Amino acid sequence: MSDVKSVERPAPPQGSRDSAFFWEGVGREVLLGQQCTGCKRFRHPPRPLCPHCRSFEWKAVELSGRGTVHSWVKPIHPPLPMFPEGYLVALIDLEEGIRLLSNLCEIEPDDVENGMSVEVFFAPTRDGGRIHQFRPTQEARRG
Ligand SMILES: [Zn+2]
Could you tell me the distance, in angstroms and rounded to a whole number, from the CA of residue 45 to the centre of ligand 1? Predict the structure, then answer.
């Protein structure tokens, strides 16, 4: 099993004014979602206008951090020196109905299944910050 927890990650992207709240939350190990105060739906990636009701009003809400694997891939080429060998990239469907792009950790590629339950955790970055990552839940590990 890849020991990805011990590998420090590159610093997260600078983000934009729209996504600043998301990265601020990740920095203090809280996964935040952008919820429309008009129709109450979540959206991701963060943006000013609700795609459902066109409201500009929103608030940052703490997410459960639980979801399922929608799809995943193991990048092979080109190797990126800033990432540990054998890392997995996954689309995670969160309980709140939004999809996040992240890394899937603490699992071998052959053991990943679409729809498996995962949970967020936060890994250190080289700049002393944090980055959100996902791993199988205890229930999913027991299979
Ligand atoms: Zn809305």
Answer: 14
When the pLDDT of each residue in the chain is averaged and rounded to a whole number, the result is 90
Q: In the chain, where does the domain assigned CATH 2.40.50 lie?
A: 64-143
Fold of 64-143: OB fold (Dihydrolipoamide Acetyltransferase, E2P) (2.40.50)
Position 80 scores a pLDDT of: 78
Listed residues: CB within 5 A of ion ligand 1: 36, 38-39, 50, 52-53, 55
Position 38, amino acid: G
Cross-strand pairs, 73:
89
Q: Give the Å distance between the CA of 56 and the centre of ligand 1.
A: 8
pLDDT in tens, 109-135: 999 999 999 999 999 988 888 999 999
